[in-house]
Amino acid sequence: MTDSAATDSSMTDPSGGSMSDTVIVQSSWVDTGQGTVDRRIFSDQAIYQQELKRVFARGWNFICHESQIPESGCFFLSYIGEDQVIAVRDREGGLQVLLNSCPHRGNTVCRSEQGKARSFFCSYHGWNFDLDGKLVGVPGYKDFYRQQLDKQALGLQSAAKVESYKGFVFASLDKDAPDLKSYLGWVGRLGLDLIAERGDMEVIDGIQKNRIKCNWKLAVDNLFDWYHPKVSHGSAERIGMLDEKDLRYMNQMVMLGEFGHAIAGGDLTDEHLAEIEKTVAAGGKPDNPTDRAQVWRTTEAAKQALGPVGVRCYGHPNIFPNLWVSAVGPPQVCLRIPRGPFETELWWFTFVDKNQTDKEKAAVARVAGHIFGPSGLLEQDDGENWSHSTRGSVGAVTGQRPINFSMGLGLDKMTADVSGQNHVKSVVNEHAQLWLYRAWQDWMAADDWAQLRDKHSLPPDGVV
Ligand code: FES
Ligand SMILES: [Fe+2]
Which ligand 1 atom sits nearest the alpha carbon of residue 109? Predict the structure, then answer.
C-alpha cells in the first residue's frame, strides 16, 4: 500500500527489541462515521505483516484447553499468528508455551500435533530441550564446541506471558500485555463462561482443521452476522437441518468490550428463561431441543457467573483477535489462524462435560461435525462467501471501493444495566462488526501496549 496517510520508520518489537520495519497507519481504514472499511486491509501484504506483530504478537491468544494437556509432558502444538508454539506441562505440572524453533538453525523441535514427551529433541543436530525449554543436551559439546557454548542462553524461547481462565489457556508474546482477566474484560470473560459454566468441561480428541482461501478478519466479522443465515444457510433451513427456532432470534443483543471483544446475537429474554425454569422445576424437560440446550443456565451457579444480562445471551462472542466461542449450538471454539492475507486456517475444538456418557459425547461430536469444520454444512456456505469477499479486495479498481457495515449505525443506543452489563437491544445490526474493525485500527495504530492502553476505543454509552 503506497498511499498511507502517516508512516513512521520504527516500531517496538513485542519481545523488547527494536525493528526497523516501516509502519503503516492510516486513520481512514475504518470510517466509523460512515460505517465503511477499506478493502485493502484484506489484501495488502505490508498490512498483513504489521498485523502479525501489532495484533497477534501483542495480544493474548487462545492456545488450547487445559484438558488437552492434563499431565507433565503432555503437549499441544498451536499458533500465535504465524509463530508456532508448543503448549506443554512441565515437570512441576506448570503451563509452558514455547516457540517451536531450535535456536541453532531454526528447525522445529516438535512435529506432532499433540502427544506426550519427555523432552523435545531437534531432528537436525540433536540438541535436546527439557519441558520448560532449557537446553539440556548438545551432541559434541565437549569435542566440537570445546565446552564453549552458552547453553543457558540457548533454550527455547518462552511466551512472555501464559495464563489460564477457567481452563482456557492463553499466551502473549508481549511482556507489557495486561493480565489476562483485565484483557478479557467482562465481555471476553462472559464469552468464555458460556462454555466454562456448563459443567466440568473438556475438549474431545480430534481438533478439526481446514483451510479456507479468505482473509482471517472476514471470517471473524461473519460470526457477529445474523443478517446472512436466512440467505446463506437457506438450503440448510429448507432441508430441516436448521431449526426455524434457531433463526427466530432477530431480537438482538450486542455487547461491546474493550480491546475489540464483542458478542452479538439473540436475546433469550427473561420470560423465555422463566418458562424453561418452570418446566424444569416441575420435573420436566422443554419440548424442543433448542430450549433443552438452555437448561444449564437455570442453575443458581450459572446465573451468578453469567450475570443478569449474560444469562440471556444467545449470541456469538469473539475474543479479540480470533477466537470464536460458538456457544449457541454444540459447545465449540474456533480459532481463525492467519496464513497470509488470502488464507485462513480454522481449528475447531469441541467441548463436552466430563460427566456425560460416551453416547452423549459422541452425539455432541456428530452434531458439531455436521455444522462446522471441513464436513460442516454451514461452514461450506460461509467459506465460499468469505473467499469471494476476499477476492473482491484484490482488483486495482474493485479494491478501491470500501465495504459497508452501516446497518443500524446511529439508530440504536447502549442500554445501561445496574450490573454493568451494558448492551444494545435492537433488531439485526452491524454494530459488533464495526466495533471489531475499529478496535483493529486502534491496535494497528499503537506502537506498544502503553499507547494502546491510552488510546483504545471505549465502548460507547449513548447512541451507537
Ligand atoms: S537446528 Fe536444532 S540442533 Fe541444529
Ligand atoms: Fe454462517
Answer: 2
- Taking the centre of ligand 1 as the mean of its atom positions, its distance from the CA of residue 126, in whole angstroms, is 6
Whole-prediction pTM: 0.94
Residue 290, pLDDT score: 83
Provide the grid cell at 311: 444469562
Q: What is the pLDDT of residue 240?
A: 83
pLDDT band at 58 (very low <50, low <70, confident <90, very high): very high
Peptide bond into 308 cis (omega under 30): no
**Could you report the per-residue pLDDT of 339-350, keeping only the tens digit for each?**
999 999 999 999
pLDDT digits (tens, 9 = 90+) for 300-336: 999 999 999 999 999 999 999 999 999 988 999 999 9
Instruction: Provide the domain limits for residue 94.
Output: 61-164
CA triplet 386, 62, 76: central angle to 5 degrees? 105
User: At a CB cut-off of 8 Å and minimum separation 6, what does 168 contact?
Assistant: 62, 65, 66, 192, 196, 333
* pLDDT, the chain, mean: 93
Place of cell 437491544: 425
**Ligand 2 centroid to 223 CA: how many Å?**
7
In whole angstroms, give the CA distance from residue 131 to residue 38: 44
Packing angle between helix 300-310 and helix 180-196, nearest 10 degrees? 120
User: Has residue 113 got a pLDDT over 60?
Assistant: yes
Q: Residue 213, Cβ neighbours under 10 Å: how many? A: 16
For residue 104, tell me if it sits in a domain: yes
**Tally of domains within the chain:** 2
138 lines ligand 1 (CB under 6 A): no
Instruction: Please check whether residues 118 and 215 belong to one and the same domain.
Output: no
Query: What is d(CA 97, CA 114) in angstroms, rounded to the nearest whole number?
Result: 14
